[in-house]
Amino acid sequence: MDFLLLGLCLYWLLRRPSGVVLCLLGACFQMLPAAPSGCPQLCRCEGRLLYCEALNLTEAPHNLSGLLGLSLRYNSLSELRAGQFTGLMQLTWLYLDHNHICSVQGDAFQKLRRVKELTLSSNQITQLPNTTFRPMPNLRSVDLSYNKLQALAPDLFHGLRKLTTLHMRANAIQFVPVRIFQDCRSLKFLDIGYNQLKSLARNSFAGLFKLTELHLEHNDLVKVNFAHFPRLISLHSLCLRRNKVAIVVSSLDWVWNLEKMDLSGNEIEYMEPHVFETVPHLQSLQLDSNRLTYIEPRILNSWKSLTSITLAGNLWDCGRNVCALASWLSNFQGRYDGNLQCASPEYAQGEDVLDAVYAFHLCEDGAEPTSGHLLSAVTNRSDLGPPASSATTLADGGRGSTTAHSSLPPWLSPAASTPRMPCRSTRWSRAPWPSSSPSSSWSWCSTCPGSVSQPASGSSDSALSRSAGSKSRNRPCIRWLPCLPRNTTLITNRTTLREPW
Prior knowledge:
By secondary structure, this protein is an alpha/beta fold. It has seven helices and 27 strands.
């Protein structure tokens, strides 16, 4: 065909001047990419896109040219040999995920200069040569997730200046080489989660000026130093969930624009007081499921832009050190999980932090909650009600009957080894408080939500009933805490005690 065209061109050039134009047109048509030479059997063709998926192929189809996209997903390819795709110079995307590829030669993607998207996820690749991506300088997206990569070649991503998305989740990577992303100046999303990273070098992420989202969750990092993320001026989201981080520090005084940080599920016991001053724009922070016992006031003061925070599942010490956190939570206008429970001291274990602070007056008096001084302060506060010679208990409609009680409730008894807090219960319907002796008026029940305080056996008075819609009246007594009805006033022979809730 080529010789025939050449002969015609020579004939027209010799006989007619207009033949020059025809020769030029013929040359242009010859330079156009050839159409696909036929759709392989069992594959699906859509114009210049070829889909050969789930066919148990062990090799890529041959004699393909002019394709713009090729999908070989869910097959049985085991290796990528040098020059295997050389005839696909027009290719713009290549999907090779969900195969059995364990070996990739350095020149496997030779002459695929136009490829912008490459997917190699869910294979068995253990290593990639330095030159793997060199023939594809126009790559925008690379997916290497769910393989068996143990190490990254130092220059693996060299020259990928247009790369914007890189997935390396769920491999066995133990170390990120220094400056491996130096040329990835356009990278915006990087996922190295679910690997085996134990530490980070100071310049592991150097050059990523446009990075906005970084995932490092489910690794083995034991320390977080914000100095490991230098000059990530565009980073908005950092995920370090489920590592083994024990301390969070910052050895560099610089400010970045981070808005979301997830440190949940670690082993954090200590955070430097100034660590969050480098992220003044932080809006969302997850610190749940760690080992924090208290938070420094300086840290709380640096949380000025927060709109959401999680703190549950820590080992909060409900002593004097919890006052700063309790005050901050009381004034916080954003969203936070309300399940902050005391881990110590023993008398407050399992109680809500804010409830414990209020009930034990931790932040109002200088005394310890277990001291006799605090018991005296609790039982003789002038704002709890006027003294009375005879006690009055609430009845239906708020018009009660009078009963003389000569002793305090058990959790305020001076004879008790440690005071117990009246816990917050669910909403109760109004009912008369048992008018029998104090010993029969109190019972110890499990955690207040869902429990019922009932008199001892033999008492003629019924226990307080819960509001309509409750499914059960009683629960077994497991944790010994007295429960009071909401908005109930208990009157003793000296002091009126009102439940604060």
